[in-house]
Amino acid sequence: MATKFPQPSYEKLHSWDIYSKDLMTEYTQCVEEGKDVESLKPLFDAVFNMDYSKEREDAADIIYRKIMEAPQVEGYKYDEPSDLEGIFALRDGFELNKKEISDEEIKDKVLGAWLGRVCGCLLGKPIEGIRTPDLHMILKKTDNFPMKRYILASELTDEIIKESSFPLKGRCFADTLNGSAPVDDDTNYVTIGYELLKRFGRNFTPLNVIDYWVNFQGKNAYCTAERVAYRNFVAGYFPPDSAVYKNPYREWIGAQIRGDFFGYINPGDLETAADMAWRDASISHVKNGIYGEMFASAMIAAAAVTDNLEDVVRAGISQIPKTSRLYEKIGALLDFYTSGGTADEFFADFAKRYNEFSAHDWCHTISNAEIVAASVLYGEGDYGKSVCMAVQQGFDTDCNGATVGSVIGIMKGSAAVGNEWTAPTCFMLQTSIFGVGTVDIREMAEKTLAFIEK
């Protein structure tokens, strides 16, 4: 009798844990990066349609080797390095006009940033994964369109729950909290930022980030590119390979939600904020995936020292290559905004350019960065208007609400994040970080100040 070797239960593995399950995302990612893979499309289709098995995984490995060897298509117009020196060499030279801020002002701004992020995340959390037909139906039937406040479980009637194809029962709404904001990866990461600096200082390295991830959170705390990178670390792959090896999510939003703390501790210092963001992002992402975190961190650093919303967004893209897809899209948004284009016009065009029913479009860095930048610009510096605008667009609701919340929170200070937003949290935040647990948001803001260089 032939020996039967043990095999994984491929069909039971999450798509983030098995490369062959998201081969079509890989194909789309390759095309967008300018890889010449068109001739491989029939092979992608054939392998993707195989039953889950070792043979399917072996075939996916062959595809991976082929795409790694694939040349760039002729005439590809973008230059998108992933190394820090290469990225910084392609910046646009923008210089931010900074205002002086006192110690008391920065103390309040950092608290505003923490509160802004936590409450912006909470606004989008219960509907993370929803698509706009369901979202807008819910908002309209609860007298919350345009969005202006939290969605509450108490207002979701049986009729609304039945009409929505998105599962609403049992989710974490603002009126179902028990004395603290809930665990979320978006808020875990800003807390991890603090823990990294506490252990390794401002000169932390990508390997320090890996060390912290593996030792202080389990695999299931991570999603998409982060989950793949985590598995790669355990298997012995380190940056830059950990971000590339069989990682179809390498330009998704995961890094963009991790850079806020680096903005908090570098008020006005765009380059250092972006440098720290690169050290964090490069363990799991490449190209525009990295740029998203650098963009967010630099925006937050800028927002601490200017009230000019346009300059905040320009500061964000000033730290990424002007030859990149992300720079091109945010630059086009800025041109549209300064020429008098309205928010409604922008988001109508946005909905034509991205398919929210495609996981790749829904979770990509660039689509979500556009929502963030547009909400910062058109939110007019009003915290509630800005985070609600970000969440109302759908896509990655909690991520975008959280990032916009950091930007406006650090710009306007803690008073901008009013009681209507903070009350459900009781100023407490749950994390899933080993040895950290639940933290006091005001204490975390106070502790953050120790890492700001005068």
Class of secondary structure makeup = mainly alpha
What's the tally of helices?
23
Give the fraction of residues assigned to helices: 40-55%
What is the strand tally? 2
- Could you give the order of strands across the largest sheet? 1-2
Rounded radius of gyration (Å)? 21 Å
> What is the terminal-to-terminal distance?
73 Å
The unreliable regions are none
Shape: globular
Strand content: under 5%
Mean pLDDT: 97
Q: Biggest β-sheet: count, sense, barrel?
A: 2 strands, antiparallel
H-E string: HHHHHHHHHHHHHHHHHHHHHHEEH
Based on the model shown, name its key terms.
2 strands; 454 residues; 54% helix; two-stranded antiparallel sheet; single chain; mainly alpha
Question: Can you characterise this structure?
Answer:
The protein has 454 residues and is an all-alpha fold. The chain is 54% helix and 1% strand. It has 23 helices and two strands. It has helices spanning 23-32, 41-48, 54-69, 84-88, 103-124, 132-141, 158-163, 185-200, 206-216, 224-234, 241-244, 260-264, 270-281, 287-303, 309-317, 325-338, 343-353, 359-363, 365-378, 383-392, 397-412, 419-422, 441-448, and strands at 428-430, 438-440. The chain has a two-stranded antiparallel sheet with strand order 1-2. Strand 1 (428-430) and strand 2 form a beta hairpin. Helix 5 packs antiparallel against helix 21.
